[in-house]
Amino acid sequence: MNVLDIRRQFPILDQEVNGNPLVYLDSSATSQKPIQVIETMEKYYKEINSNVHRGVHTLGTRATDAYEGAREKVRKFINAKSTQEVIFTRGTTTALNTVAASYAAENLSAGDEIVITYMEHHSNIIPWQQVARRTGATLKYIPLQEDGTISLDDVRATITANTRVVSVMQVSNVLGVINPVKEIAQIAHENGAIMVVDGAQSAPHMKIDVQDLDCDFLAFSGHKMCAPTGIGVLYGKKHLLEKMEPIEFGGEMIDFVHLQESTWKELPWKFEAGTPIIAGAIGLGAAIDFLNEIGLDNIANHEHKLAEYALDKMSSVPGMTIYGPLDASKRAGLVTFNISDVHPHDVATVLDAEGIAVRAGHHCAQPLMKWLKASATARASFYLYNTEDDIDKLVEGLVKTKEYFSDVF
Amino acid sequence: MSSNNLDNLYRRVIMDHYKNPRNRGILEDGSHTINMNNPTCGDRIQLTFKVEDGVVIDARFEGEGCSISMSSASMMTQAIKGKKVEEAIKLSKIFSDIMQGNEYDDDIDLGDIEALQGVAKFPARIKCATLAWKAMEKGLTEEEQK
Q: What is the SS3 assignment for A329?
């Protein structure tokens, strides 16, 4: 894997920010897009653009073929059994909300339990809170170990025979930990619960095989994996999706519409009301081609090395607090930190003046921030186009930040 | 961006307010308590103040956040103490204009607040600076409408 060669395929990286070469370390928020994806979308709008699944004209057919072709690429990417199990959504949030508002709201009642973890992103907390409110079910949290990992003993202790839904992120957007979702799915199933996996931070970075994980649902976003914003995926096992009611209604998803009632199209279209995100889906297909060409295992390996390098270099900066396990083998490619008493916003502003983009704030994980006893943190996240040189610049920037605020503290 | 710009953002007087916040705490006998947070970043402030005969006689703040939000809160409490309610609200509007880079009434003596002018060049940080002022404006507007 030639990173310099890969970097050249991301035109946005070749620019100066505040007089310094851009060092983009915020891919967990959104990844940059390779030229292949940008050109694929441009070509779609220049040459193919038409609505799908309607009309008989040539462009309509081409657009439909491209859109459904993208679905097949997603199916292969996650090894789903059928394209009927692949629903295009606006992103992870919409995908998780669909499972909550359809499957969970219809199947849960008072006395039932939903189990999540303390490290979840708000989009994997609030939909379940809403289901709990509507159905009377209880929302339970799997606690975290001292280093931010999950122990399977705690999973077994939290999931009971009353648990109907377990929903866990595969990779934490704050702690960087990789959760044992396959083992958790097994425990969920032993207790008669379904397993939902939030793959927002894992799908871009590692090979996912839904049949191997045996998860019932998987949600992920395109924009974190080199595809455009506004497109995401909900994978669901066919027998579950078939029994679920859509949560949006309108064009595209109907079979027959009568005056007082209607019937739905077959899977996956019954969950795709309205004109779908055609260009986004095609862009996602191009992103999957791009990632496959490099190889997900190579990407995971590259990021793993970067995480190891970053943990090593960053720990050497005095006053550095790193959140999550220090053992790189338990981690994906991101490091969340605080430095001395400098507020993460101030850290991010000083780094930005050096052209270095990091995220600062609560990372949409307020319950986790509470657990970490931090009101906010800074995060550097890596992707296939980042290098050790980027991390060296980050560390230099952090030393500068510390010096800059040294007369304050 | 030059470090000159950064120095403009983090002026010495700002750092002084951050390190030695004025009026930090809670007024047990305050007439108003306002809680406000910045949901995108997690900064939060609790502002208590005491108004008598239309004059802000005391103000305190508690909270957590970055150097800009906390120093701005410190300066704001300092600035409104002893001011009439409508003067304090006017100052809040002027502050908002400064942050947005608008023209403002420059007859008014801004004191330490002037140091926050550099924030206007950092769009991502304007919300940090205005948090305490928004809380103050909300509380005092309620007072005015009493």
A: helix
Chain B environment of A409 (Cβ under 8 Å): 19
Residue A99 and residue A24: Cα distance in Å, rounded?
A: 33
User: Searching chain B, which residue's CA lies closest to the CA of residue A16?
Assistant: B1
Same-domain status, A128 and A203: yes
Place of tokens 């609030």: A126
**pLDDT one-digit tens code per residue, B93-136:** 999 999 998 888 777 788 889 899 989 888 889 999 999 999 99
Q: Are residue A257 and residue A148 in the same domain, yes or no? A: yes
Any CB–CB contact under 8 A between B13 and chain A? Answer: no
Residues written for chain A: 409
Q: What is the pTM of this model?
A: 0.93
A70 residue type, one letter:
A
- Separation CA B134–CA A282 (nearest Å): 44
Q: Is the ipTM of this complex over 0.90?
A: no
Residue among B20, B40, B66, B128 with most chain A CBs within 10 A, to mutate: B66
Contacts 24+ apart (CB under 8 A), B90-93: B92/B133, B92/B134, B92/B136, B92/B137, B92/B140, B93/B137
Burial environment of residue A295 by CB neighbours within 10 A (0 to 12, 13 to 18, 19 or more):
middle
Which domain does A394 fall in, by range?
Answer: 296-408
Q: Active-site residue among A95, A132, A348, A364?
A: A364
